[in-house]
Design goal:
D-Amino Acid Oxidase, Chain A, domain 2; about 25% helix
């Protein structure tokens, strides 16, 4: 196949038109005035992973250190500014996250986690024990993201918890409600940024990056398959924003990217019996779950090696939220109980029993969902690959080839990280002042002895839902 050499040039070529690539293009063009930015992706924008999560955001992040809290606080600042300037085109809300437990032994863990994350800069913790001296709990606002509380509310009074959310399991003993959290429409946010970037000079090509040309240690060109023809684009700056494929794109330059992929599913269905209200926060069950089965069902499942796991305890983390406005009755449910690394396959496939497992697990948090065991609505099962580093922090910054950069390993938090990440990536490329959290998010952190010492005791699931 011949290479088409027709004088194509770009100041920056970005591989990937997910939320990372689009945000990078937005910050380079709109904020820094770089006109010749070229995005290349063989799929429609935002369709591989960006819209496959709960589309939520939070500043509620554990350590070590305060890097992720500061990074996310900055990103949320930028999201709020975008919402203000666009008349909230992408539906930003600030309903919060609600973590719940029915295990009294987990209460000290809630208390410890709340104190730790508060101390990292996420805001104060307000405690409610059912005493007359307790502060007044402020319920969430369904739509207003201004003038809302920061920090978190820790409710240790079951009566108050059920007063706020009467549909919950009455055994619930504790609730932690971080407040600078909520969600957006990933598709609308991404398209808003893309339109702004195009208006400022960015281009989007439907194609696939084949090779990154490197001479004397620096990027000189990118070869891509465009409309069936190999096309060479002269450039001195290349951004690897290929989502779950950042490892493969890195290999084109001989750079090893230390990441792996997990497949995360998402279930959408119509709550046609109105089991839960429409104005809820993101609701998260923090306890492991034994799925409810009849004796006959349990025996049958346990007898088959492929289904036996469904009769055993499944890790915590089932969560759901309402989706849509107006008369929508859609619910989104996610529960990633299988996190073995795997190579991305397009389109991804999910176990046939995924919806039933998620619904039965969710009924531990919301018992009335059991009404759907016998009369299940028709689900839509979707999902994508969460590309992660071992410590679940992103990779944003230069690669060990001059002119090459990475913006990836965003796991399931690409939407919330997109703005501070795009800003940081653009600062690296333009030589602007970097925020002090930049070194902790760069690939070079893995040659820092102090950082590597932290990894010895690091929880690889830190910050992951």
């Amino acid at each position: 196949m011949k290479t088409k050499a027709n004088g194509n040039t770009a100041d920056v070529v970005i591989c990937g038109a997910g939320i990372a690539g689009i945000s990078a293009a937005y910050h380079l063009t709109v904020k820094h005035g770089i006109k010749k930015v070229l995005l290349i992706d063989e799929r429609p924008p935002l369709t591989l992973t960006s819209d496959k999560s709960t589309e939520c955001y939070r500043n509620w992040w554990p350590g070590p250190g305060d890097t992720m809290v500061r990074f996310m606080n900055r990103s949320i600042d930028l999201l709020e500014s975008l919402a203000d300037e666009s008349d909230n085109f992408f539906g930003l809300n600030r309903r919060g996250y609600v973590f719940l437990t029915a295990d009294p032994n987990r209460v000290p863990i809630f208390e410890q986690n709340a104190a730790e994350i508060s101390g990292l800069g996420a805001g104060p913790v307000r405690r409610y024990d059912g005493r007359s001296t307790d502060p007044t709990y402020q319920p969430h606002s369904a739509h207003d993201y201004h003038n809302q509380p920061i920090g978190a509310d820790l409710l240790l009074d079951s009566g108050l918890i059920l007063e706020q959310f009467p549909f919950l399991n009455p055994e619930t003993v504790a609730m932690l409600h971080p407040r600078r959290c909520g969600w957006v429409s990933a598709q609308q946010l991404g398209m808003y940024l893309l339109d702004k970037a195009k208006a400022a000079g960015a281009r989007l090509w439907d194609g696939r990056v084949l090779d990154v040309c490197v001479e004397k240690g620096r990027v000189t060109a990118v070869r891509a398959l465009i409309e069936g023809q190999v096309t060479e684009i002269q450039t001195r700056h290349f951004v690897n924003a290929a989502g779950p494929y950042i490892g493969k794109v890195g290999a084109m330059m001989g750079v090893e990217i230390p990441v792996f992929n997990e497949l995360h599913g998402k279930v959408s269905f119509t709550d046609y019996l109105d089991v839960v209200p429409r104005d809820l926060p993101l609701m998260i069950w923090s306890d492991p779950v034994m799925l409810p089965w009849s004796e006959e069902e349990r025996e049958e499942l346990a007898a088959d090696e492929e289904t036996r796991w469904m009769t055993e305890e499944i890790p915590a983390g089932a969560h759901f939220r309402p989706e849509g406005e107006g008369g929508s009755k859609q619910l989104l449910m996610l529960w990633t109980y299988d996190i073995h690394p795997q190579e991305p396959v397009w389109p991804p496939t999910f176990d046939l029993e995924y919806f039933e497992v998620v619904m039965r697990g969710m009924a531990r948090m919301v018992p009335d969902l059991s009404v759907y065991f016998e009369r299940p609505p028709k689900p839509y099962v979707d999902g994508g690959y969460y590309c992660k580093t071992g410590e679940n922090r992103p990779l944003i910054g230069p690669l060990p080839i001059e002119g090459a950069y990475i913006f990836g390993a965003l796991s399931g938090y690409g939407i919330m990280a997109s703005q501070a990440g795009g800003e940081l990536l653009a600062a690296h490329i333009t030589g602007s002042v970097l925020p002090d959290y930049a070194p902790a998010l760069s690939l070079a952190r893995y040659v820092d002895p102090a950082y590597m010492a932290l990894l010895d005791g690091w929880d690889a699931t830190a910050g992951q839902l």
